[in-house]
Amino acid sequence: KSGMDSAAMAKLGEYSVLLFGIFVLGGFANFARVYLFGNAALRIVRSLRSRLYRSMLMQEVGWFDTKGTGELINRLSNDTYMVGTSLSQNVSDGLRSVAMIGVGTGMMIYTSP
């Protein structure tokens, strides 16, 4: 009986190390996701602001009379930031969900042949 207990303990140790490795790998993957999508959001915001600013410079002079300064500044700062971050966040969440569905399906197939 003690031989089986030591074999079971050895198996438990192997599974514990494997689980720990999976959690560490998941942590690194999450860090990479947050870092990369954060950088992507900043690049999107910069591109949007640049394009919007160029578009504003091409407007007729009368267009500036109809738009308030606060509205224009708000468009350049807040609106572009919100669009960029929501785009990158939604793409990030979507990719994570697809990965979770794939892993979950694989686990279900593996455990229930």
Automatic annotation (TrEMBL):
Lineage top rank: taxon: Eukaryota
InterPro entries, A to Z: ABC1_TM_dom, ABC1_TM_sf, Type_1_exporter
UniProt KW keywords: Membrane, Transmembrane, Transmembrane helix
GO cellular component: mitochondrial inner membrane
Subcellular location, record wording: Membrane
Residue ranges occupied by any ABC transmembrane type-1 domain in the UniProt entry: 1-113
Pfam families membership: ABC_membrane (PF00664)
Sequence intervals crossing the membrane: 15-36
PROSITE patterns: ABC_TM1F
Membrane topology: Multi-pass membrane protein
SUPFAM superfamilies noted in UniProt: ABC transporter transmembrane region (SSF90123)
GO BP term, example: oligopeptide export from mitochondrion
Gene Ontology molecular function terms on file: ABC-type oligopeptide transporter activity; ATP binding
Protein's name according to its UniProt entry: EG:171D11.2
Protein's organism: Drosophila orena (Fruit fly)
